[in-house]
């Protein structure tokens, strides 16, 4: 079974999450500097046998584009070109950063560790992936 990989794209950092081999459990994988994300994805898609990419789609509360929507669309175009054989799905990512912070607090993660933005991005990607998995 092909895995599902989720991407929380940002201008500086990009959070990545992936399912297990049976597509039952979503786990944070890492956060990569955005300038290195395509190289990372090319390697990971092949090594982890990924069949679907889920890309967080930033929207405002009223469903209008956010300030980063255009950058995400451009990144999706690059993904479409790089991975024509994969299914690439957009998933609403509103509130994922807030939900990530709340889950870290609930999990007892120290305040110092919660200040690491890389961790928030990784957990946000995991939430995007869980939302996608619940919708299919």
TrEMBL record:
Could be a nuclease involved in processing of the 5'-end of pre-16S rRNA. It is found in: Cytoplasm. GO terms for molecular function: hydrolase activity, acting on ester bonds; nuclease activity. Residues 2-100 form the YqgF/RNase H-like domain. The gene is ruvX. Belongs to the YqgF HJR family. The lineage of its organism: Bacteria, Pseudomonadati, Bacteroidota, Flavobacteriia, Flavobacteriales. Coiled coil: none annotated. It is an enzyme of class 3 (hydrolase). The keyword Hydrolase applies. Signal peptide: none annotated. Gene3D superfamilies: YqgF/RNase H-like domain (3.30.420.140). Its main location: cytoplasm. InterPro entries: RNaseH-like_sf, YqgF, YqgF/RNaseH-like_dom, YqgF/RNaseH-like_dom_sf. Its EC number is 3.1.-.-. It comes from the Bacteria. This is Putative pre-16S rRNA nuclease. GO terms for cellular component: cytosol. Pfam families: RuvX (PF03652). GO terms for biological process: rRNA 5'-end processing. Keywords: Cytoplasm, Hydrolase, Nuclease, Ribosome biogenesis.
